[in-house]
Amino acid sequence: MFEPVPPPRYGGVERVVGILTDELVAQGHEVTLHASGDSDTKAELVAACPTSLRLAETGPFRDFTVAIYMKMMMDIVHRIDEYDVIHFHTGFFHLPTFHPHRHKSVTTVHMPMSLDPSVMPVMNAFREMPYIGISADQTSHAPLMNWRGVVHHGLPRTTYSEAAGGDYLLFVGRIAPSKRPDRAIEIARRSGLKLKIAAKVDAVFRDYFEETVEPHIDGTNVEFLGEVSDQDKQELYGGARTLLFPIDWNEPFGLVLIEAMACGTPVVAWNMGSVPEIIEDGVTGFTVDGIDRAVEAVQSTADLDRHRIREVFDRRFTAERMAAEYVRQYGELLAGEVGS
């Protein structure tokens, strides 16, 4: 509800929901999407509010977040007999209402389960709800939950295309201490390469941005682009020598990793969270544990085959594969089978 589906700029969860919804429709399924009214979908759209909440910051809807989510849940309850499967991406808002309907409900958890221990009493209270993880690392931090399996994210084959690459490094995502843009700046400086930063700055991290990132922005060695659209991402990823992913937390997936791979762009990423599941070391990039190794890896990415990187994306991270895996999960759920 905080972003339209799909989002115009930043918004990983909403982007994945939009991709999955449209691909399920393309595969012949009848789909209803409950989201904000400014969403754009091939499915039937049921809007709980006319405008996504982040884009309505100056409007009345921002003040009634919980009430809007409650309305969304009631919209679903009123139509529950119409639906074979209800697939939630809404965090925890739905758990009390749909616990009695868990035989036909499944929840994809998009957050890292290791981030905040205070969430575990909530998850334990509803541990019988069926959940799907987005990485094996994510699910390993909450082993008592009813995980039915793991489904890695996917992208449409046509969203991005293989490109020749260029001579700059790239950081894409959002500015936050856990994302470590300061590491990206240091890697670029020591590598003697320009760094382009395409990132969202939330108000809560404005001070961090001003203290840690902004002093280095000179438009020559470090260029800050702000949030970028999908159209701009193709040019950015395709023209980059390497994507830097210098995280300092257990990232549950990392959509930018497969966006870069779809363009044939190698990745240098910290060996944390989901990274070892997504990056094939020495093939699609390198996993590293420090700045020195990252600088070495940046030099080595010039030797990687960009066409082979795209081939790995086509084999492992397409929207078709993601939707097919979810359909299998739906079938097992309705058949009463134990998750895998």
From TrEMBL:
Domain named Glycosyltransferase subfamily 4-like N-terminal: residues: 10-113
Signal sequence extent: none
Superkingdom, taxonomy of origin: Bacteria
Pfam family, one: Glyco_transf_4
Sequence ranges assigned to domain Glycosyl transferase family in this UniProt record: 166-297
Recorded coiled-coil stretches: none
InterPro entries for this protein: Glyco_trans_1, Glyco_trans_4-like_N, Glycosyltransferase_grp1
Keywords assigned by UniProt, alphabetized: Glycosyltransferase, Transferase
Protein name as catalogued: Glycosyltransferase family 4 protein
Species the sequence originates in: Micromonospora vulcania
Phylogenetic lineage: Bacteria, Bacillati, Actinomycetota, Actinomycetes, Micromonosporales
